[in-house]
Design a protein that fits this description.
single chain; alpha/beta; three-stranded parallel β-sheet; about 40% helix; about 15% strand; globular
Length: about 375
């Protein structure tokens, strides 16, 4: 939807170099290598001038399928795999750009969030314990490992009290919730990204919560179905994204026109990301003057500085991926903010980091 909104606006303003933008949308089975390859090949062999993707769960097959074409491929995989592949062969993957940063920043950024919440006086944790509930894919495992490392680096300010493993799909959250109650940690991290399953967790948790605990759900609530399926049970829960729609003047204007065109619950990550990606491609094409010169367009993207709906874009030359605030830079306008939201009145409201917060943290209903 974000992509289509940007295309509509650009075409209404005359297009790019007098040419109208066209979209070709393909579905792919992102859980299999073959599905990723088939989806990307449908675009590389179909005359595309750019490939835009929210994310794939297993990035390498898609990247390997896109690389030989040289077509600029912009994605939000949030993956260390992307960074490592690029560093291993910068020439092969030169025109593949990760719009955001690797998933590991979710872990270290979460511990920083807990520290900031405590230091600011917004929260007085009942103890220094973190209980991690982790999924079994590489993405969630790397987030968990980064959280553990960041907690250890606080020298006792925070400690990992327990790690509970879950397997997708989660049929019943009751055993997990019993473990959470036994640990009685001040901070609970549900390191799992599937919105429908996080909504199911929320519905079970509110009937038997851990008193005084701050509950953090990793990324998944950004997907529209979380609020729709949770039906109020997500109230007070916190979630984060290293790549999300701001609520500043630019972000608010985008939200308003997006909701006018697409009524209903709005996604808070890839709506803005898709919109930004189209405008970045348009800027690169205009600058180069020849959309068929893929390498020149790639060079223009690599050198680009662009302030979009989801923050400031400047690609790290070592990784061809983004820069995170405050995890990688102290300048709030030099990267994409690691946003923390809280569900308040059945709406997602930004509570951190400070320069981009809409509202303060409020005590969840189960407190």
């Amino acid at each position: 939807n974000g992509v289509m909104l940007a295309i509509e606006e650009i075409n209404a303003a005359g297009g790019v170099m007098g040419r109208q933008l066209e979209s070709k949308i393909v579905d792919l089975d992102m859980l299999t290598p073959e599905g990723n390859v088939a989806g990307i090949q449908a675009l590389t062999e179909g005359g595309s001038h750019a490939i835009l993707s929210a994310f794939t769960i297993i990035p390498q097959p898609a990247m390997d399928a896109a690389a030989p074409s040289g077509i600029p491929y912009l994605h939000g995989n949030t993956s260390s795999v992307n960074d490592n592949l690029f560093k291993g062969d910068p020439q092969k993957y030169r025109n593949i750009f990760q719009l955001d940063v690797p998933e590991v920043w979710y872990g270290s950024g979460f511990v920083k969030f807990l520290q900031d919440m405590t230091e600011s006086g917004q929260w007085e944790p009942k103890n220094n314990k973190i209980h991690i509930v982790q999924g079994q894919i590489s993405y969630t495992q790397l987030i968990s490992q980064a959280t553990q490392a960041a907690a250890a680096a606080t020298n006792g300010e925070w400690e990992i009290a327990q790690i509970t493993d879950i397997q997708f799909p989660v049929q019943d959250w009751a055993p997990v919730i019993r473990e959470l109650q036994d640990t009685d940690a001040a901070a609970i991290m549900i390191d799992h990204w599937v919105a429908a399953e996080l909504a199911a967790f929320a519905q079970q948790y509110v009937y038997d919560p851990v008193p005084g605990a701050l509950v953090y759900l990793q990324y998944g609530p950004s997907q529209p179905e979380f609020l729709d399926l949770a039906q109020g049970a997500g109230e007070g829960m916190v979630w984060g994204t290293v790549y999300g729609v701001y609520a500043d003047e630019m972000g608010t204007a985008f939200r308003e026109k997006y909701r006018a065109k697409y009524p209903g619950t709005m996604g808070m990550v890839y709506t803005g990301g898709g919109y930004d990606a189209v405008y970045m491609m348009a800027k690169a094409w205009e600058q180069v003057g020849n959309p068929d010169d893929f390498d020149a367009v790639g060079d223009a993207i690599r050198a680009m500085e662009y302030r979009g709906i989801n923050g400031f874009y400047k690609f790290n030359p070592e990784t061809n991926s983004g820069i995170s605030y405050p995890n990688m830079t102290d300048d709030p306008e030099a990267g994409q903010a690691h946003l923390f939201f809280q569900v308040q009145d059945d709406e997602h409201r930004i509570i951190a980091p400070t320069p981009f917060a809409e509202v303060p943290f409020v005590a969840p209903p189960w407190w």
